[in-house]
Amino acid sequence: MTLKPPFDRITIDADKMGGQPCIRGLRLMVRRVLEVMAAYPDRQDLCREYPSIEEEDLRQALAFAAANIDDRVDILELAS
Hints:
It is a single chain. By secondary structure, this protein is mainly α. The protein has a single domain, classed as Arc Repressor Mutant, subunit A. The chain has helices at 30-39, 43-49, 55-67, and strands at 10-11, 22-23. The chain has a two-stranded antiparallel sheet. α1 crosses α3 (55-67).
């Protein structure tokens, strides 16, 4: 299954990586790309270490994560 643009590089396939969102049908999960981005703040270092990741993959991984975060805040009252 491929998601609609702007996520044309994010794929979800039940037979790969347990159906987790991946980059371009590879066995490279979006979650792992985000972890790599956090570990390698210098994009040149990241690209040297992971040559299969392209700049547009990084952009879409970030956009996909942002689009799927539930930013609802629940206020809980504590019993006194």
